[in-house]
Amino acid sequence: MATIIDGKRISSEIRESLRKEVELLKSQGMQPGLAVVIVGEDPASQTYVRNKAKACEDIGIYSEKYELDASITQHQLLEKIDELNSDSRIHGILVQLPLPKGIDEQAVIERISAEKDVDGFHILNAGKLLVGQKGFVPCTPAGVIEMIRRTGVSMAGKHVVVIGRSNIVGKPVSILALQENATVTICHSKTNNLHEMVKMADIVIAAVGRPQMITGDMIKDGAIVIDVGINRVDGKLVGDVNYKEAEEKASFITPVPGGVGPMTITMLLQNTVEACKRTNNI
Ligand code: NDP
């Protein structure tokens, strides 16, 4: 039976140490600040934004929330970003995705100053990640790597199989695993022999968005299984992994909910604190 990698517990440990760091920064006259911008009324996005703002408050980060009407023009949104780029109280800017149709997401992301891009989606930060320079790493992939680290199992030389190749999860987590000296295979919707690929993995990272598609018979005995997927089925949240089957085979496994999800917000807080420190040359 697998050991659960408890994202909530790890998150609260990290948040506790961030809280102390924020206190120290505040005592020196520096308070990290995050601006969260949401456009339109997508209920899931609103929940995410609320959770992010609350998590900031909990550890003493200053936060501002901008709820903009779905009818806003791209030009107006870019003006808002410009304003936040030059606001010295704000060290991190997050634009909740997806944006309404008609707004060019990439143009909006590129407008955020790379130094305030705490989501790590700006092309400069993506490039820095690829070449191994210090930038901002996207939050979910950073959280995944932190969870694997905390198992105490080194990734060096291990075969990591990532299922999914999105710019926000699959690709960056693959690069991070490579930096940890893993041997990395990236699978996607055109992969022919997914079953065989996953079966070879010492570490499986599922980031697909298809409920329970990774079944127990695909998991090698003793593998570490990280489930990034968040899918709503009959009103309940389930991952991309069939948890009940996989926990019989895995050595470590993340639950959904309570696994990668809480880590994503924690990494956002960490990036915001880091952005404040970099601005102040700490
Ligand atoms: P995307 O839809 O952008 O990417 C999904 C990837 O899965 C694509 O690369 C796609 O391949 C691949 N894929 C789709 N179907 C198959 C298949 N049958 N076999 C193999 N690969 C397949 O999703 P995201 O990366 O944004 O998110 C993935 C999941 O993670 C979602 O459930 C999302 O909700 C969740 N998520 C969770 C977060 C958290 O905080 N826990 C944060 C972000 C996302 P192709 O490229 O060929 O289309």
Automatic annotation (TrEMBL):
The entry's cellular-component GO terms read:
cytosol
Write out the residues that bind NADP(+): G164, R165, S166, I230
User: Which InterPro entries does the record match to this protein?
Assistant: Aminoacid_DH-like_N_sf (IPR046346), NAD(P)-bd_dom_sf (IPR036291), THF_DH/CycHdrlase (IPR000672), THF_DH/CycHdrlase_cat_dom (IPR020630), THF_DH/CycHdrlase_CS (IPR020867), THF_DH/CycHdrlase_NAD-bd_dom (IPR020631)
Which reactions are catalysed by this chain? (6R)-5,10-methenyltetrahydrofolate + H2O = (6R)-10-formyltetrahydrofolate + H(+); (6R)-5,10-methylene-5,6,7,8-tetrahydrofolate + NADP(+) = (6R)-5,10-methenyltetrahydrofolate + NADPH
Q: Which residues form the Tetrahydrofolate dehydrogenase/cyclohydrolase NAD(P)-binding domain?
A: 138-279
Q: Which top-rank group of organisms is this from?
A: Bacteria
- UniProt-listed Pfam families: THF_DHG_CYH (PF00763), THF_DHG_CYH_C (PF02882)
Q: What does this protein do?
A: Catalyzes the oxidation of 5,10-methylenetetrahydrofolate to 5,10-methenyltetrahydrofolate and then the hydrolysis of 5,10-methenyltetrahydrofolate to 10-formyltetrahydrofolate.
The UniProt family comment states: Belongs to the tetrahydrofolate dehydrogenase/cyclohydrolase family.
| Quaternary structure and partners | Homodimer.
Specify the protein name: Bifunctional protein FolD
Q: What is the lineage of its organism?
A: Bacteria, Bacillati, Bacillota, Desulfuribacillia, Desulfuribacillales
